[in-house]
Design brief:
Elements: E1 2-8, E2 11-18, H1 20-24, E3 34-37, E4 41-42, E5 45-46, E6 70-72, E7 77-79, E8 87-90, E9 95-98, E10 113-116, E11 121-124
Antiparallel strand pairs: 1-2, 1-3, 4-5, 6-7, 8-9, 10-11
Length: 131
């Protein structure tokens, strides 16, 4: 069994689990609309599903497809739509990177930085403490 994304005009319309032979023998529809995707692939790296550690497996099409996501046929890559104007697509991994660097964690503190998409700023907000 494998995961397949139905892609129409570069947009993922559906993701299903099926045998390759089922995709090849579609009676109602065009089998070329279906593109295989790897459930354990993110950012061009294949991960072991049990340990969540890179395992050296085949990183198929950079990322697992998601409904509403993008499939770039020329790059043979799946990725999510642009999250905000503050993101740029890293075409080495096909993931969006924030263009505003995240500040350092305060000495002795925890990483409670949250990005404010309305203002384009990073806010430090510890859980349970009002800013």
């Amino acid at each position: 069994m494998g995961h397949f994304a139905k892609v129409i005009d570069g947009i993922v319309e559906a993701v299903i689990v099926a045998e390759q032979s089922d995709i090849d023998s579609l009676r109602h529809g065009d089998p070329s609309l279906w593109v295989q995707t790897s459930y354990n692939t993110k950012g061009g790296v294949h991960y072991n599903p049990e340990t969540q550690q890179p395992d050296g497996g085949i990183a198929l099409r950079y990322n697992y497809a998601m409904v509403g996501g993008i499939y770039d046929k020329d790059a043979d890559a799946f990725y999510i739509p642009k999250p905000s104007i503050y993101h740029e697509l890293d075409t080495n991994e096909y993931v969006w990177k924030n263009t505003i660097p995240k500040p350092a964690v305060p000495p002795g503190g925890m990483d409670y930085w949250c990005f404010d998409y309305d203002n384009g700023t990073w806010d430090y907000a510890e859980p349970g403490i009002e800013p």
